[in-house]
Amino acid sequence: MSSNIFITGTSKGLGSGFADYYLGKEDKVYGLSRSSADQFGSEDNYQHIQADVSDFDQIKVKVKELLKDVEYLQLVILNAGILGEIKGITDASIDEMKEVMDINLWANKVIIDTLYEMKIKVNQIVVISSGASINGNKGWSGYSISKAAVNMLVKLYAVEYPETHYTALAPGLIDTGMQDYLCDVVDHEAFPSMTRLKEARGTDNMPTPKEAAKRIGDILPALLMTPNGSYEDVRKL
């Protein structure tokens, strides 16, 4: 039996991989992203809407439009996010970090609140976090802070809405376009954690988005057995 799956950030990277994975299982996929997802244009089971996730009013309107006929979602994957610039914490301005927080944290709150406002029953919500949320490596500034806040956001929703299972999930290293910046542009001497990323690129330790989406998708049902609201890392599951 097919399921209704709602995924953000489906135009590229891991979000696109997730959409491809669930469409391959003949599920009905509802995708939301800032740019178009033309790669799924011929898929009857894919419904997409474009929205700027930094525009909270627009997100609310677009989510309501996309899911207007949906009463139940088996799974929601809140994947859309941005990295921001790798720089020292004293060099990162509040405005820069606020932009990252708006997209990585508050946009997710707007989406979740809209689902509850629409009275859509949701079985499972997975918000994509990161190992950066607990590592505290030099240069990750706003990104690490936003993902650490995501972990707590998930925990709070799980306490207040226990009928839905929540997880903040670190997906591991993935070879997306972000790695072009991290591996080839960022100064590795100034920010040593980048060296590990470059060494992992092209190996099994950094799969493609489609490979990563399959690995993660295969284990998402098992997350229902983990504590509601917990932070999990795919590399430890």
Automatic annotation (TrEMBL):
<protein>
    <recommendedName>
        <fullName>Alcohol dehydrogenase</fullName>
    </recommendedName>
</protein>
<dbReference type="Pfam" id="PF00106">
    <property type="entry name" value="adh_short"/>
</dbReference>
<dbReference type="GO" id="GO:0016616">
    <property type="term" value="F:oxidoreductase activity, acting on the CH-OH group of donors, NAD or NADP as acceptor"/>
</dbReference>
<dbReference type="InterPro" id="IPR002347">
    <property type="entry name" value="SDR_fam"/>
</dbReference>
<dbReference type="InterPro" id="IPR020904">
    <property type="entry name" value="Sc_DH/Rdtase_CS"/>
</dbReference>
<dbReference type="InterPro" id="IPR052184">
    <property type="entry name" value="SDR_enzymes"/>
</dbReference>
<dbReference type="InterPro" id="IPR036291">
    <property type="entry name" value="NAD(P)-bd_dom_sf"/>
</dbReference>
